[in-house]
Amino acid sequence: MTVDAxxxxxxxxxxxxxxxxxxxxxxxxxxxxxxxxxxxAVDVRGGGPGTxxxxxxxxxxxxxxxxxxxxxxxxxxxxxxxxxxxxxLEERGRGVRVGPEAGHVVPVVPAACVFDLxxxxxxxxxxxxxxxxxxxxxxxxxxxxxxVAEGCVGAGTGAVVGGLKGGVGTAxxxxxxxxxVGALVVVNAVGSVVEPETGALYGELARGRVEVPGVGVHAxxxxxxxxxxxxxxxxxxxxxxxxxxxxxxxSKAQAQKLAGVSHDGIARAVRPVHLLNDGDTVFALAxxxxxxxxxxxxxxxxxxxxxxxxxxxxxxxxxxAAESVExxxxxxxxxxxxxx
Length: 340
Description:
Elements: E1 13-21, E2 24-32, E3 38-44, E4 51-52, E5 65-66, E6 68-72, H1 81-91, E7 96-97, E8 105-106, E9 111-113, H2 129-141, E10 160-161, E11 164-165, E12 167-174, E13 180-187, H3 202-207, H4 215-230, E14 241-248, H5 252-269, E15 281-290, H6 300-321, E16 325-327, E17 330-332, H7 335-339
Parallel strand pairs: 6-9, 14-15
Antiparallel strand pairs: 1-2, 2-6, 3-5, 3-15, 4-9, 7-8, 10-11, 12-13, 13-14, 16-17
Helix pairs in contact: 1-2, 5-6
């Protein structure tokens, strides 16, 4: 059974830790690999990224597999949440073996952050190691192939995209070859997900599956967005993050290609994209349960195409799942409130 999520990739689990109220509007999301880890890579396109341990994923470097990827709010402060994940993994002996005993490990935990500082009203309310630990514990407690919560949860709690409320979305697909590709995205961009002339979602237009909102509905939505923009306190610093996973066995170089092509999925759904005040980052994970077709040098193409497609769908789902939020830092209406 599939749930149309990144967890359709066997062994991949997702956990969220969410903080709202009392000045908080933020959180952390952990994508947990199967025990033993997954081959990992990253591609950073935004001009203002906040990341941790991404150099370890370079195909030229020694680390081959990682146990988890952390996506978090709190800008660079929120990267501390990866420390909580690292501690949880160490307790279970999961990481790069560096000594003679089973517990002599160093968990490599790549992480990336979105900017949401002050959106709940308190600039100092941001994820820490405890938030990361709560998220990885939630991931570990989830069942295999579990449904993933979407919208204003985890790292998407304080996300905003083009004045609309952003959030977390996920999607998965079973390929004709028998493999699976899934994505989890945190949508928090300076650019817009909405076509300005009609109010349709770019991501749906790209897939040719959309009913254009009525003229009156769109006009009312634009007026509401303009009103809300007047009260926003926090600066337009953003970032869209994604984790794309597959059950195929990929080299680090192949995984890096998957991460790079999957950025196309963001570009189809968010415009403009990869700006200097975005830090757009895509991670790729390959669990290695299946082999690519032997003797076919182009077998990876099916996976690359799917990676971009599931990222686009995950962005659409994030925006549609998000709920309107009124916090100390401003008011962000949801697409659902404005367009139904």
